[in-house]
Amino acid sequence: MTEHVTVIESVKLDDKNDTIILLDQTQLPNKKVFLELKTVDDVWDAIYHLKVRGAPAIGIAAAYGIYLVTKNSDASSYEEFAQTFSKMKEKLASSRPTAVNLFWALDRMEARLEKEKAQSIDVIKRALKEEADLIKKEDEEVCESIGQYALELLEPGMGLLTHCNAGTIATAKYGTALAPIYLGQEKGYDFKVYADETRPLLQGARLTAWELDQAGVDVTLICDNMASIVMKQGKVQAVLVGCDRVAANGDAANKIGTSAVAILAKHYGIPFYVCAPMSTIDSKSKTGDDIEIELRSEEEIKTKWYSEPMAPESVKTYNPAFDVTDSSLITAIITEKGIVYPDYEENLAKIFAE
Ligand SMILES: CSC[C@@H](O)[C@@H](O)C(=O)COP(=O)(O)O
């Protein structure tokens, strides 16, 4: 698959220099800037400000972050080390609330710490690095597998619509919703992709359109409010999106606007697929109502991207960063373990038990 994927590692550890090298996604597509993160505040800030974004990439950054910021701890006992670890974990976990991969990765790092309890601090530190490397490596395989399964549902020449960015830079490699597009590209499937611009932070315009265009995929950028007309005109045969958290009943939180696309897809009889690594499925959230939706600043709606204010200064705003697509609108959830169809409560539980 690598042939058509723009291989940019959005999160990379430089262990020798105690640094995380991070592609600053806020500067794309105009500038390809790599940041050097060293402290817990650097990592927190990068996640909060979406310099690293996309659920799997956030998880990878948090895993390397917690490794790095505990690596230099001079704790001499396990208890002391574990105390520093949980302080750092708490800080990183406060960066963004919706993508469950953040908490999943931090919990997994903590589980590894506890597993190595009897070892020396040096061995524990090495184990934490190994765990963070594994989280990243596994994500590559997961994305590739999601891509293979999703491709089974698609046919050459199809028009596909996607929202936000669930591509290479949102993951370790390949992406989730964009993985079948890259895979199809390699097989000459000639997909026609419509990328929603994704207001207010424009992940579709700045990131999806950019990475698909670079890969030579036939991509057309549309504003969010144009999804209906392209569907009505018969230009779209399937919708593929990523997600930040899937509840046990299949309700799926993803970038704001996703649920509107799902409602449109249902209206026009177009299949709506959610691409979800198992790490994004949160059995602790029973339904979408249990998922915390991140609220962000009014500046993202009123001024960002424009040299002049876009709205009266005094006007109130409401800026939820995600919405939840009701499971009844989702045709299938595509995981690395296979394609899951309704009844989601039953079938997600089954796939977890496998
Ligand atoms: C494979 S990335 C899946 C999701 O995280 C993605 O679709 C999304 O909504 C990202 O939101 P963002 O706010 O840009 O982090």
UniProtKB/TrEMBL annotation:
S-adenosyl-L-methionine as a keyword of this entry, yes or no, is no
Gene Ontology terms, MF aspect: S-methyl-5-thioribose-1-phosphate isomerase activity
Residue positions annotated to bind substrate are: 53-55, 96, 203, 254-255
Keyword line: Amino-acid biosynthesis, Isomerase, Methionine biosynthesis
* Record-annotated active site: 244
Pathway terms, separated by semicolons: Amino-acid biosynthesis; L-methionine biosynthesis via salvage pathway; L-methionine from S-methyl-5-thio-alpha-D-ribose 1-phosphate: step 1/6
The chemistry this enzyme catalyses reads:
5-(methylsulfanyl)-alpha-D-ribose 1-phosphate = 5-(methylsulfanyl)-D-ribulose 1-phosphate
Keyword Translocase appears in the UniProt entry = no
Assigned EC number: 5.3.1.23
Instruction: Check the record and name the CDD domains matching this protein.
Output: UDM1_RNF168_RNF169-like (cd22249)
Q: Which domain of life is it from?
A: Bacteria
Q: Where is this site: Transition state stabilizer?
A: 164
The biological process GO terms on file are: L-methionine salvage from methylthioadenosine
InterPro entries for the chain = IF-2B-related, IF-M1Pi, IF_2B-like_C, Initiation_fac_2B_a/b/d, M1Pi_N, NagB/RpiA_transferase-like
Q: NCBIfam families, per this entry?
A: eIF-2B_rel, PRK05720.1, salvage_mtnA
The protein's assembly and partners: Homodimer.
What is its biological role?
Catalyzes the interconversion of methylthioribose-1-phosphate (MTR-1-P) into methylthioribulose-1-phosphate (MTRu-1-P).
Q: Which HAMAP family match?
A: Salvage_MtnA
Q: State the family it belongs to.
A: Belongs to the EIF-2B alpha/beta/delta subunits family. MtnA subfamily.
Indicate what this protein is called per its UniProt record: Methylthioribose-1-phosphate isomerase
What is the scientific name of the source organism? Gracilibacillus ureilyticus
Which gene name belongs to this protein? mtnA
